[in-house]
Design brief:
Elements lengths: L8 H13 L8 H7 L11 H7 L3 E4 L7 E4 L9 H8 L4 H6 L16 E5 L6 H17 L6 E6 L9 H9 L5 E6 L21 E5 L2 E2 L12 E5 L2 E2 L4 H7 L6 E5 L5 E5 L5 E6 L10 E5 L5 E6 L4 E6 L4 E7 L12 H15 L2 E6 L1 H10 L13 E7 L6 H6 L6 E7 L16 H4 L3 E4 L8 H12 L5 E5 L5 H12 L9 E5 L1 H5 L3
Parallel strand pairs: 3-4, 4-5, 5-6, 6-8, 7-9, 8-10, 10-12, 11-13, 12-14, 13-15, 14-16, 16-17, 17-18, 18-19, 19-20, 20-21, 21-22
Antiparallel strand pairs: 1-2
């Protein structure tokens, strides 16, 4: 069926009003209207994808007599076969997929053939409606012998019964399921909601599980799985995660958010990205540790307040790391605790030759500050980018930290000024990278007064020989305050003749005039 759209401006306004009255949240950016010479509806809408699809069949033509006019063309998008349309719609949430049914009669039933479901029970009136909708979806695909490529279900309602989820997942698993994401209320995280056959699915490519439990893993085989995200997933056997990883021969992206595993071991020849999170502090005397042996690893994120030991055997060259760990040092590093000192030293030594880009947080730098009074940090010879989040009380160790980065090109500095320390910080010396490689410095923390932050900026301007750009932010209460800060900065001598000082957010500053 071919549908022509010949819509004058008034008709287009009425169509927008009609769709808005039907309760559909549709968005089209103002600039798109302006470029195409269309009148703007009064409201803003939320989904660009649907309107891009709707307007795929329109073309705007400019003439000398009339600035813009809409010329009807054949609806090329609607001419596409259902299987192709279904693959496109598979990338949208189900609530938006259903909305395409109002575009035209051709689209009225297309959404039913989309081989996937992405649904949150909070988008429906009650949990019963959620169950009925999923039941009808699964039954429709079963009756048409259609595959289910994607199943993403979220349920956070207080009043809900999770018993229905197991048959849904079972049906999807036998229908060539590729993407599975289950996120149920934490009230059910001790119940085995999912079928154990899930871990022997030959077609699964992406698995994301939140707050679910499993008793036993008898047979695990996930030959195509590339992405696995496990958040507070409970296993009777704590070695189950190791078994899972070992049974995924092509796994690339791994994320584990888990507070009850004392030992996390990741051994894989294929993983390129790891995200490990253990947020909760603990007070027991047991040893919590992380062991990673992944020679192709390109990205590592550690957010861990429990582990005292991190053993990284191997990473890919030029890796990026995001470190937020305290090695279980709660306030004070005991000089007599040789085991803890060795653990810290071994961690940085093992990653030093592989890291090109590092983000390091406040707690980690506080531990390093204490460690540097007892030991030295290894050199990071290929590190070119460093984002350091540092407490003001630890600023004095900044030159020592940078001494370990002889080839650093970009430094982002984020100061935590929550402490009451107001005295000047004296930097002991100038590290080698100031002379050889440092080209860009960015101060993420807004400057609200002439104080410690200004002293840090002065340190970089006066000592960096080849610095090209220094970026800062101002946060004075008035334009006058910010002008005084900025003039103070401009008066500092610059070691580099090519250095430019950039003020981020200057537009906001001008609004204070």
């Amino acid at each position: 069926m071919t549908i022509n759209f010949t819509i004058c401006f008034g008709e287009e306004q009425r169509m927008f009003a009609h769709i808005e009255q039907m309760g559909h949240s549709l968005h089209w950016h103002r600039s798109i209207y302006a470029k195409r010479g269309m009148l703007l509806p009064k409201g803003y809408y939320n989904n660009k994808v649907l309107w891009k699809m709707f307007l795929f069949s329109k073309e705007i033509h400019q003439t000398d007599q009339r600035r813009y006019q809409t010329i009807g063309r054949e609806d090329r998008l609607s001419l596409l076969p259902n299987p192709l349309l279904s693959r496109v719609l598979l990338h949208l949430p189900t609530k938006d997929v259903v909305k395409t049914s109002v575009l035209s009669s051709r689209w009225r039933s297309v959404w039913r053939y989309v081989p996937g479901l992405d649904l949150d029970d909070r988008e429906l009136p009650d949990y019963s409606s959620f169950v009925n909708f999923v039941d009808r979806f699964v039954e429709f695909l079963r009756s048409n012998d259609s595959p289910i490529a994607k199943l993403k279900l979220t349920s956070k309602r207080v009043k809900s019964d999770p018993s229905a989820i197991k048959p849904w997942v079972k049906e999807a698993l036998v229908r060539k399921l590729q993407h599975l994401e289950i996120n149920y209320s934490t009230r059910f995280n001790s119940l085995e909601l999912l079928p154990i056959m899930l871990f022997a699915c030959p077609t699964l490519v992406c698995l994301r599980l939140f707050d679910v439990a499993f008793n036993e893993l008898n047979h695990v085989s996930l030959p195509r799985l590339k992405t696995m995200h496990l958040e507070e997933v409970k296993f009777t056997n704590h070695a189950a995660i190791e078994t899972l990883i070992a049974s995924c021969p092509v796994l690339e992206d791994l994320s584990i958010v888990q507070d009850d595993l004392k030992v996390i071991r990741v051994v894989s020849q294929t993983i390129t990205s790891i995200n490990l999170v253990r947020d909760t502090n603990h007070q027991d005397n047991e040893k919590w540790e992380v062991l990673i042996h992944t020679p192709r690893l390109k990205y590592l994120s550690l957010k861990d307040k429990k582990s005292s030991s991190f053993i990284i055997y191997k990473m890919s060259p030029s890796a990026k790391v995001d470190i937020a760990v305290d090695f279980n040092v709660k306030g004070f590093l005991d000089p007599n605790d040789l085991e803890k000192r060795n653990s810290i030293g071994h961690f940085f030594k093992n990653i030093s030759s592989s890291v090109r880009d590092m983000i390091i947080c406040w707690e980690t730098l506080k531990v390093i500050h204490q460690y540097l009074k007892l030991e030295t940090l290894p050199q990071f010879p290929i590190m070119s980018h460093l984002h350091a989040k540092i407490f003001v009380a630890d600023l004095e160790m900044l030159p020592i930290l940078l001494r370990s980065c002889p080839n650093l090109k970009t430094l982002i500095l984020e100061l935590n000024v929550s402490t009451n320390k107001k005295e000047r910080t004296r930097f002991s010396y100038v590290p080698w990278c100031f002379y050889s490689s440092l080209e860009s410095v960015e101060m993420k923390t807004p400057i609200s007064e002439i104080g410690l932050e200004v002293e840090v900026i002065k340190y970089f301007l006066e000592n960096s020989r080849i610095l090209k750009k220094l970026t800062l932010r101002l946060a004075g209460r008035t334009m006058k305050e910010e002008s005084l800060i900025f003039m103070e900065l401009l008066n500092f001598p610059r070691r580099s003749s090519v250095c430019e000082v950039h003020v981020a957010g200057l537009e906001e500053t001008m609004l204070k005039l």
